[in-house]
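>> Question from a student workshop board

For tomorrow's exercise we were told to take the sequence and the ligand below, predict the bound structure, and bring the output to class. My setup keeps failing. Could a helper post the expected result so I can at least see what it should look like? The ligand is flavin-adenine dinucleotide.
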Amino acid sequence: MHRIIVVGGGLIGAATARHLARRGEDVALIAPEEPTDRRTHSGVFASHYDEGRITRILDPDPVWGLTAARSIARYGDIEADSGIAFFTPAGFLNFAPADGERLPLVDAVGTANAARFDRLDIDGLRTRFPYLAFPDGTAGLHEHGTAGYVSPRKLAAAQTEAARRGGATLVRAPATRVTAVGDGVEVETAQGVIRGERVLVATGGFTNAWGLTPTPLDLKVFGRTVVLVRVEGDTLAEIRDMPSLVGAGAYLLPPIRYPDGHTYVKIGIGTDQDVRLETADDLDRWFKSTGSAENREEFLGIITDLIPCLRGVDAIHTDTCVTSYSPHGLPMIDWIDGSQRIAVAVAGNGKGAKSSDDWGYAGALLVSGADWDHPVDRSRLSVAFR
Ligand SMILES: Cc1cc2nc3c(=O)[nH]c(=O)nc-3n(C[C@H](O)[C@H](O)[C@H](O)COP(=O)(O)OP(=O)(O)OC[C@H]3O[C@@H](n4cnc5c(N)ncnc54)[C@H](O)[C@@H]3O)c2cc1C
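>> Workshop helper replied:
Here is what the output should look like for this input. Compare the format with yours to find the bug.
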């Protein structure tokens, strides 16, 4: 019987387990491994099977900027505690119309959180990033040192390994049922029933589809498509110093080497028009698909307009992933039963990677019953049900 069980070894769940282990809690982390072959896999997938997630303090939302800053400040500790490196400080550029509403909001959040960034007008942008084609009237904020990208795959691995080194028990199988029983909880897995006093469910987009909470959560799960353009030779040399980018309605990751040995630039956009995924079958089909053909064409147009040297590159492929949204735009980190035995930490709202360590910290405070030593008021992370 463990004191705490965490179900889901993704970016938020594995971070929660690490923080619990650091606090000396007896914790079991139920964390199925990434499938070796997506097409034949039967089971759960995750939103961290990739090599690039933008990380940055610069964000228009003060809570996301603050939790990112707190997480980024701990990246070094997580790398040291696990022996796994996951952060590349390639920098981050947010560009937008100079007279628009976005940049002043982002600027204020960066300043409040002591981010190191430069304010660039159109001439400054064109001088610093000669390989990017900005429309006239654009301005930008360029964060360096604290920004760039994380490998989400390696971040999840690092949090899991640090939790394990801290004493957490790892169970490498998906959970099929989570129930409150007597004065504790039971989690059914293919490796048997795991018993604990309390459980925190951090299973991202799979939470409702796999029925892992007694009542379905008010969680919108979208299928997202990303486009990866392979770069090499002179093209790679030209854009090698590219930062992570948000602008032109899209987000872009700089050249990153993938496990297949090739280097790719990635582009994605998330909108409410993307496909909604409700059932386990929906999720399974989506992760096994190549995503939206329409998105592929649209995103290719945007990336080649912005990075003209990519025109003519024909080694292009798509990948699929899911994002989960709460009604209030922040993760739901809350008890879901009156007896305070089952809690959740879900809903990255499309930008949960960069702040995931701090959401895990909040999850650990909640489920361990510790004082709420977190700058975001608990009421802002409340759970909502269908
Ligand atoms: C295409 C794309 C691009 C993104 N880009 C960015 C970005 O640039 N910057 C950023 O900050 N964020 C980004 N995000 C968002 C970020 O990846 C997510 O917010 C983050 O992964 C959410 O973390 P999570 O722990 O809630 O979910 P996940 O990381 O998906 O983890 C959920 C975990 O639960 C496990 N699980 C599921 N079902 C079960 C079960 N039945 N039993 C046990 N375990 C289970 C899974 O194996 C997984 O490990 C992006 C997301 C997508 C899809």
